[in-house]
Amino acid sequence: MFIDSHCHLDFPEFQSRLPEVLANMQEAKVTHALCVSVDLPDFPNVLKLAEEHPNLYASVGVHPDYEDTPEPTFEFLVETAAKHSKIIAIGETGLDYYRMGDRSYDSMEWQRERFRTHIRASISSGKPLIIHTRSASEDTINILTEEGAQKIGGVMHCFTESYEVAKAAMEMGFYISFSGIVTFKSAKELQETCKQVPLDRMLIETDSPYLAPIPYRGKTNEPAWVSKVGQFVAELKGISVEELAITTSNNFYECFHIDRNLS
């Protein structure tokens, strides 16, 4: 029924309770989840999860927050993405200036170069992009445009920006994914944006173990709770939970070029 389009089941929070987490998914009618890579040393664990569980997928990439970590090359990303059918995306990648602090704009050039490498690998490999953007939406959209990301598309994950940013991304073929943040009482502007994003361009996610939705806020998030995100968004948009679940699941298959008959 539901699909969690973005989670991190390889993180330490899940290592001792993975069978329980997978059982909770089944009980909550969450059929599939995409386990997203954040750095290269931990990528083998992400891929192992996808290989061992038919309803899990993997991505390959390095998060923009990870500065002191092996840098991914274009060749590595392309070759790795091509090796396995369960690797369905490049990322998560993008820009994050939130923690820039007193550092200069020029000091963040490493992030912008890493982002460009991921976009080029995505286009070359035919695997869509998973985009992270925080306090950097203008540069994110500009670089996506400059690098021709409209050729491949993907998803703006854990979206918290304005509708104008969403519209610019959608015009390049990107889907907009809403996490548990949209359920927060403080997220009124994001809720208005969610109302405006067309259902056929929308995904839902947990970003677990982070950002647990209401009524679980403050707890360790898990893929089963994407159902709570779906229920909230359905009410927000004035549609049935079933319609929300079916459409966002179909969107997931379309976004990541998955034959749903084989999933």
Short description:
This protein is 39% helix and 17% strand. With 263 residues, it is α/β, with parallel strands linked by helices. Helix 3 packs parallel to helix 4 and helix 8 crosses helix 9.
Q: What would you give as the CATH superfamily?
A: Metal-dependent hydrolases
In terms of DSSP E residues, the strand content is 15-25%
Averaged pLDDT:
96
Query: Share of helix among residues?
Result: 25-40%
Strand arrangement in the largest pleated sheet:
1-2-3-4-5-6-7-8
| Shape descriptor | globular
CATH topology: TIM Barrel
CA radius of gyration? 17 Å
- Count the helices. How many? 9
The profile of the biggest β sheet is: 8 strands, parallel
How many distinct folded domains?
Answer: 1
Number of extended strands? 8
Name given to the CATH architecture: Alpha-Beta Barrel
CATH class wording: Alpha Beta
Structural class category: alpha/beta
Which residues form runs of ≥5 with pLDDT under 50?
Answer: none
The N- and C-terminal alpha carbons lie at a distance of 13 Å
Structural notes for this entry:
This protein is of the alpha/beta class and 263 residues long. It has a single domain, classed as TIM Barrel (Alpha-Beta Barrel), CATH 3.20.20.140. It is 39% helix and 17% strand. It is built from nine helices and eight strands. Strands 1-2-3-4-5-6-7-8 form an eight-stranded parallel sheet. α8 packs across α9 (241-255). The longest helix is centred in the middle third of the chain and has 17 residues, at 109-125. It is globular and about 45 Å long. The model has no long low-confidence stretch (mean pLDDT 96).
